[in-house]
């Protein structure tokens, strides 16, 4: 009996699904996703296939937002763990991003390393290398991925705040009112 090929989620899959969720159901094509995330269309296609296998995308173009948020809330810190690294120059992430830094009092900054960064802090490797460039041109994506980083590396209070803000951001409504899915185009 031949073993079936396993299709595990990759960090870029999470980035792509968040980018789709941020469209709030407006039409977003694979070519626009690829352009906005600085990756190829073939990477988008492979990612969507893995996401369908994981039941985060249904049919051809329906994002299962409830499942995505469950994965972010309960699985991302285990599947894509991260530990703060050395002090580098970069752009703010996790509790250092504006979405959380006014609610979390911390003497340390967390940053995605980049020479184009504006602050110094402990390095947090982004979910995917092109995230830094994509975030510099898309502030909503930057915020959402910084919130995911707060879940990956934060303490309980930071995680709970990040989840609450991310739900509001992705659903355009108050947590915990949850929508079932968003449709998008290919």
- How do the SSEs run, as a string of H and E? HHHEEHHEHEEHHHE
From the helix content, strand content and strand pairing, which structural class follows? mainly alpha
User: Uncertain runs with pLDDT below 50, 5 residues or more?
Assistant: 174-179
State the shape: globular
Largest sheet: 3 strands, antiparallel
Strand order of the largest sheet: 1-2-6
Strand content: 5-15%
Number of domains: 2
Question: What does this entry look like structurally?
Answer:
The chain contains nine helices and six strands; from the N terminus they run αααββααβαββαααβ. With 186 residues, it is mainly α. The protein folds into two domains: 11-79; 87-171, no CATH class. The strands form two sheets. It has a three-stranded antiparallel sheet. Strands 3, 4 and 5 form a three-stranded mixed sheet that branches. Helix 8 packs antiparallel against helix 9 (156-171). The longest helix is centred in the C-terminal third of the chain and has 16 residues, at 156-171. The relative contact order is 0.19.
């Amino acid at each position: 009996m031949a073993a079936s090929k396993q299709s595990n989620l990759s960090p870029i899959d999470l980035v792509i699904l968040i980018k789709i969720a941020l469209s709030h159901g407006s039409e977003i094509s694979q070519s626009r996703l690829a352009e906005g995330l600085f990756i190829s269309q073939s990477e988008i296609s492979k990612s969507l296939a893995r996401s369908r296998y994981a039941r985060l995308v249904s049919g051809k173009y329906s994002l299962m937002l409830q499942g995505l948020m469950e994965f972010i809330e309960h699985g991302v810190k285990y599947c894509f763990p991260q530990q703060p690294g050395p002090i580098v120059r970069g752009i703010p992430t996790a509790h250092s991003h504006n979405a959380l830094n006014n609610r979390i009092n911390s003497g340390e900054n967390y940053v995605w390393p980049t020479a184009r960064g504006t602050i110094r802090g402990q390095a947090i490797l982004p979910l995917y290398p092109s995230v830094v460039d994509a975030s510099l041109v898309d502030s909503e994506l930057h915020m959402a991925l910084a919130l995911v980083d707060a879940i990956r590396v934060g303490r309980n209070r930071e995680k709970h705040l990040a989840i609450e803000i991310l739900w509001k951001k992705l659903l355009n409504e108050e947590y915990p009112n949850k929508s079932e899915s968003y449709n998008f185009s290919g």
